[in-house]
């Protein structure tokens, strides 16, 4: 591990300006195989929405196939924003595979690049799934010159992008359930991990550990991007549950209470905006972790997962619009994505 503390670098908020979004394209040897056509259509919709606002970096096993699919869907100007790179993968969860960007607020001098990309170990959410090909993607992209910054090796530490949320200032949010889950970073204690996060992200003065809000069917052990998201003006968007018969009710009641007790570093309560809990969606007898909180913020827009539940989808879209009044809110039907226990934010990673 490189332990230099880069005092001029910070972990930005997701709503800050981005250079691009990264996708890992699905192929026949991923778990998407039974519904590859359906998930490919979702990817094309995401690519269309993203390239209307910013650049898109795609790794794919078959770049020519992907190029032809995109050319049929995207306008010429949008295609110019797409970069394709041939690369194999175990799966497609870019949020937890792609590097995490640190930015500098200082002007570049000489050959100095005001960007660090932190390359962590992804081990299939605690050794649940194979990840050896996924772990090689970032180095291959860097060596091909496709990252505008320095790639910093942190493969000795397991940290998934979906497990942390930054306000871009001094506070980092995470969940105890995920970062303390088995087969991640044992024998490190909570205090050890907290110290490591402060070292990795120099602007962070405190780490907020949330103790509740585990979605049924969640392979990640409780990624924060499925339950609570930080948005501008000290606003937290979070999932609430009103149905006392729902298995989530008590856990998400406790999450809401914890959020109400939180204060900013300026000792002010957070503005809380509540998202509805989607009606239960099952694959055979297994409940899937459907959530509207797993949205992607891009330049000028927000891509929001929907589940063909008109009333709850509309409530979620309206609430997210309230948090982002100046951005276009784009609904993406995520019923296919959720079959593999994730959603839009999980499949994507913004690069600063």
TrEMBL record:
Keywords carried by this UniProt record: Hydrolase
The UniProt record lists the keyword Hydrolase: yes
Domain of life of the native organism: Bacteria
Statement: the UniProt record of this protein carries the keyword Plastid: no
Biological process annotations from GO: putrescine biosynthetic process
Annotated GO MF terms: agmatine deiminase activity; protein-arginine deiminase activity
Name used for this protein in its record: Agmatine deiminase family protein
The species this protein was found in: Prevotella fusca JCM 17724
Source species taxonomy: Bacteria, Pseudomonadati, Bacteroidota, Bacteroidia, Bacteroidales
């Amino acid at each position: 591990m490189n332990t230099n503390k880069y005092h001029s670098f910070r972990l930005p908020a997701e709503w800050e300006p981005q250079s691009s979004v990264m996708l890992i394209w699905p192929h026949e040897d991923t778990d998407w195989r039974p519904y590859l056509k359906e998930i490919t259509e979702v990817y094309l919709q995401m690519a269309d929405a993203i390239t209307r606002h910013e650049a898109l970096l795609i790794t794919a096993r078959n770049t020519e196939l992907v190029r032809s699919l995109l050319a049929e869907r995207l306008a010429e100007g949008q295609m110019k924003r797409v970069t394709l790179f041939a690369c194999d993968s175990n799966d497609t969860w870019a949020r937890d595979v792609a590097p995490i960007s640190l930015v500098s607020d200082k002007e570049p001098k000489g050959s100095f690049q005001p960007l660090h990309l932190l390359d962590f170990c992804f081990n299939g959410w605690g050794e649940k799934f194979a990840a050896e090909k996924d772990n090689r993607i970032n180095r291959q992209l860097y060596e091909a010159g496709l990252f505008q910054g320095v790639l910093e090796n942190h493969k000795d530490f397991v940290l998934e992008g979906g497990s942390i949320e930054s306000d871009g200032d001094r506070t980092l949010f995470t969940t105890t359930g995920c970062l303390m889950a088995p087969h991640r970073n044992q024998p490190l204690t909570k205090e050890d991990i907290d110290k490591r996060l402060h070292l990795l992200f120099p602007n962070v003065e405190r780490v907020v550990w949330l103790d509740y809000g585990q979605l049924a069917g969640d392979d990640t052990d409780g990624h924060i991007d499925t339950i609570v998201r930080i948005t501008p003006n000290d606003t937290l968007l979070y999932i609430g549950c009103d149905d006392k018969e729902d298995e989530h009710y008590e856990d998400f009641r406790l999450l809401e209470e914890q959020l109400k007790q939180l204060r900013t570093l300026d000792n002010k309560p957070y503005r809380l905006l509540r998202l509805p809990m989607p009606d239960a969606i099952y694959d055979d007898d297994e409940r899937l972790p459907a959530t509207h909180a797993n949205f992607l913020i891009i330049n000028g827009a927000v891509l929001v997962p929907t589940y063909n539940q008109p009333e709850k989808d509309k409530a979620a879209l309206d609430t997210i619009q309230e948090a982002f009044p100046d951005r276009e809110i784009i609904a993406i039907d995520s019923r296919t994505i959720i079959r593999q226990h994730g959603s839009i934010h999980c499949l994507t990673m913004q690069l600063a």
